[in-house]
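dumping this here before i forget
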Amino acid sequence: MPVRRHGHTTGGKQSHEYGCWVNMRTRCNNPKATRYDRYGGRGIRVCERWVLFDTFLLDMGLSPTAKHSLDRWPDKDGNYEPGNVRWATQSEQMRNATSPGPKPPHVRAAISRALKGRPWSPARRLAQQRRSERCPTA
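structure:
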C-alpha cells in the first residue's frame, strides 16, 4: 500500500495544523504517550472522521495563529469530534481546564497549622496575595 501524503508541509517542515492533529491522535491512541492517562486513558477518543488529516483540516480549518492549539470545548470531557473542538489560545484553554478538585483533609490541616490555627480557604489566600501586592514590604 503506498504512503498517503497530506501535502501540508512548507520547506519540508510539517504544518502547525498537522502537528496538532498528530499529537491529538497520539495522546488518545498510544498508551506509551506522555499524558495518555489524561486523554486515551480517560476514554477520550478521536472520531472516525478525523482518522484522515484531510477531513480533520476540512472540519477545523487553519489555526488562526501558531499560538492556537486544539481545545475540547464546550465539553472538556468529550471526544475530539466536530462540534466539540476549537482552536484556542493557552489562556482560553486554561479557563476550560479540569480542576484538580478540593485539597485533601491532611493538606488542609497542614496549611491551617502553618497559618497558626486560622482557618484556610482559597479566598483568604487570594486576599492575602492582593494585600501583599498593594503594600509590598521594603
